[in-house]
Known about the structure:
Rossmann fold, SH3 type barrels, six-stranded antiparallel beta barrel, five-stranded parallel β-sheet, 8 helices, 17 strands
Amino acid sequence: xTPEPLIAVAMSGGVDSxxxxxxxxxxxxxxxxxxxQLWNQRRLPQLQVEGASGRCCSLDDxxxxxxxxxxxxxxxxxxxxxxxxxxxxxxxxxDEYLQGRTPxxxxxCNNHVKFEQFLHMADGVGASHxxxxxxxxxxxNSSTGRWEMRRGRDEAKDQTYFLFGLRQDQxxxxxxxxxxxxxxxVRALAAELGVSTAAKSDSQEICFVPNGDYxxxxxxxxxxxxxxxxxxxxxxxxxxxxxxxEHDGVHHFTVGQRKGLGVAVGEPLYVISTNPxxxxxxxxxxxxxxxPRLVAKEVNWISIQPIAxxxxxxxxxxxxxxxxxxxxxxxxxxSRVEVLFDAPxxxxxxxxxxxxxxxDLVLGGGWIE
Length: 369
């Protein structure tokens, strides 16, 4: 008799991945649990916050994942991917910020580490598929021969914005068992199945930025690496180019930021853009943030082939952004697409992702130029 295919469960130590393991175990699936060690939490101790919690991929999370695997009586492994994580997520994160863009480390991690490397790990133990706790749905469209990704049923927890980089070969081996469930339903099921993390709070902070201060992390990372800080002081100017203040580095600012500008002119000001070449931070009024269009690069088309003619879509430019109606315009370079919004959108930020939808169907996504 052919043995039941082996499924590798990506166990983060949270309730979602723990519930996935428990669900699959209940259904008689043959499992192995795996956790990636991505970042040494003891690095940059000067940034640690006493009593802070809510970071993903912490040592406590590894402990919780191991305990859940033991309770389910499934094999469990922790694999160290710190070097790959630093090269493909942390360093690009730092470089992007210093170039005046606002990167999304969770997407970089999904694209280059969690799925790419996890599938290699799965191969190593003979697993046919990987299962994760992401809130997204997958279906295979036999008429197009493509895997289609759809938003998770729980709109508040939908994670498709961070998954736009997944390729067809990766999707073919991926399971998202929670895609059709809401978070309360997942917690209730986890409690019913006796999962010890059923009531555990969700992680909020980026694993390698312990205090949520990106600029402080970059400064601390440079100090740790022995990289001399370049001259980063510069001017804060208004939209006409008039100097109105000074700053300690463009990496302290992001498009749309209002607080912490260090200038006061009698009306609210927002960061409109940053220019690392001149070390200028350009500020202006809220209406100056409105943009009618954007161009996305390195576009990955998921549920459809690359477009050859304009088509309508809804486009998200931030995870919490309500997808805006737009028209997608193909470029001569198929890896780029122009997005023309029906109504101008606020704070279109270089380095963030533009993810394109047809209602709940994820068409694809790319990085905002």
